[in-house]
Design a protein that fits this description.
The protein is of the alpha/beta class. 41% of the residues lie in helices and 22% in strands. The structure holds zinc ion.
């Protein structure tokens, strides 16, 4: 497989004008993206965390597609997937209707959190917590959050949160001969997530509905419906899946995410913490695990009381 390294990404050529832009661990993109030639025009799937990484993504798109991208699609509203939107002015940005709504509802608060003084304060607090971390894994997780905050601080004053200006509910066919589909199966990782599927080559860009090697956050979504969404994804019979975080995978990656979600739900429902499958316990993000179990416990309690 051909690989190209840029400052923020490793670009993997998946063949036929399809590229996975995998976030480098030392870069400021944080999430994976996709660059796909649509036949007429090209699409960028997810725009990454910072203006610097988004500019890198844009020039990578120009290089591998041989032209400027003609549209962007955003899998969900989280900042590491959508804050780079600001570097793609003048072209349509597609996302789910609900993702746009939540971005607009929370934008003032988000922008306050992205102010230089606030980022400096947060970084100071994170640094002071570092010596209290009980394990090497916890230090690593904290360092990852620190990296994200430092990346944002490096761009403070230039950050703008631009919501998708083109929205849909369940499915939209992207222009061009490729026949690419942008599809939402509803709530899972967030209030409304979307995937991009290329039916001829059976390549699927999953956003954070699939995270591998790093624990996904569950607190904005619906953990039980997420499992249904994974079944819907499997029904498309994808041969290659580009996750939101982690390496390119196959349907086996869906099974790993199922193991994670059912493990967290089981741990949340058990009186004494049930254990996650061994392979998943090694995933980065032990701080997310505590939060996920806490969220799932509240979610299950609310869900049961409604039955
Ligand atoms: Zn996310």
């Amino acid at each position: 497989m051909t690989e190209t390294k840029t400052a923020h990404y490793t670009i993997e050529d998946l063949g036929n004008g399809i590229h996975a832009a995998l976030a480098r661990p030392d870069g400021f993109a944080v999430c994976n993206s996709g660059l796909v030639d649509l036949g007429e025009g090209g699409v960028v799937f997810d725009t990454g965390l910072t203006p610097d990484s988004a500019r890198d993504l844009k020039s990578s798109a120009e290089l591998v597609l041989g032209r400027s991208p003609s549209l962007c699609v955003i899998s969900h509203r989280h900042l590491d997937h959508a804050l780079g939107n600001s570097e793609f002015p003048g072209i349509p940005i597609w996302g789910t209707r609900r993702a746009r709504e939540v971005i607009l509802e929370t934008r003032d608060q988000t922008m306050a959190e992205l102010k230089r003084e606030q980022l400096e304060k947060d970084i100071g607090e994170l640094e002071s917590r570092r010596p209290e971390m009980k394990s090497e894994a916890a230090v690593k997780d904290l360092d990852f959050i620190l990296l994200m905050n430092r990346a944002l601080l490096a761009s403070a004053g230039r950050l703008q949160l631009i919501p998708p200006d083109q929205t849909f509910e369940t499915r939209v066919s992207l222009p061009g001969r490729r026949g690419a589909e942008f599809v939402s199966f509803g709530s899972g990782h967030t209030e409304a997530d979307a995937i991009m599927f290329l039916p001829q080559e059976k390549v699927l860009f999953a956003g954070d509905l699939v995270c591998l090697g790093i624990q996904p956050s569950m607190g904005n979504g619906d953990p039980e419906h997420w499992l249904t969404v994974l079944d819907e994804i499997e029904r498309l019979r994808p041969e290659q899946i580009v996750p939101g975080h982690g390496p390119v995978t196959t349907v086996e990656g869906l099974e790993e995410v199922r193991g994670y979600l059912t493990g967290v739900l089981r741990a949340a429902g058990a009186s004494k913490g049930a254990k996650l499958p061994a392979a998943i316990r090694r995933w980065e993000g032990t701080l997310s695990l505590e939060e996920n179990v806490k969220f799932a416990r509240g979610w299950l309690a609310a869900h049961r009381s409604r039955r």
